[in-house]
Amino acid sequence: MYLPLFLTGEPYLLSTAMAGLVLTLSGVAWAIASQVQGRNPERLSHELCLRIGLGLLGAAIVGSLLATLLVLPPYVFMITWALAGAGMGIMYPRTTVIGLQSSSLENQGFISSAMTVADALGAAVTIALTAIVFALLLPLGTVTAVAVAITVALGVWAAGLFTGLRAHVEAPEAVAVEID
């Protein structure tokens, strides 16, 4: 979310349309990756989707951090955030399925609500903490503030990696239905 702001300021000075292209490419990559994972459930297990998604997201965050620190050309951010979008597109839909498959039929409503609240709360807290860090560090320069904000994102990713690599879901057993 700080990337378009960063790209419109020093040292890049891109137009808002060009800076916003980073987010557009990320959204398109998210949609395409989500479509791919949804159409290949036999070949892409939940665990594999989590690992691929976390890998792409980690590569995107590290790549963005390096691009920020080294002041690499803006197209590097377009590539890294397309990777981030693809990672989220592969991983995000599967987290819902994992949560629902891991719960009993009676608890699925509760689990679905809990996941929605956790998603919203996690995003709000992360954005708020990053905003505080960004605002406090902005006097040191935009590059420093953005680099630290990306480092915070890297910490959140590491927590996701820790839990994501432990995820394992057994496929639910088929229920035979007799028709009389």
Task: Characterise this structure.
The chain is mainly α and 180 residues long. It has one domain: Growth Hormone, Chain: A. It contains 6 helices and no strands. The protein has helices at residues 3-8, 16-39, 46-69, 74-101, 108-137, 142-164.
Please identify the structural class as seen in this structure.
mainly alpha
**Biggest sheet layout:** none
Q: What's the tally of helices?
A: 6
Residue ranges: pLDDT <50 for 5 or more in a row?
none
Average pLDDT metric = 88
Portion in beta strands: under 5%
In short:
The chain has 180 residues and is mainly alpha-helical. The chain is 75% helix and 0% strand. Keywords: Membrane, Transmembrane, Transmembrane helix.
Provide key terms for this protein.
180 residues, mainly alpha, Growth Hormone, Chain: A, 75% helix
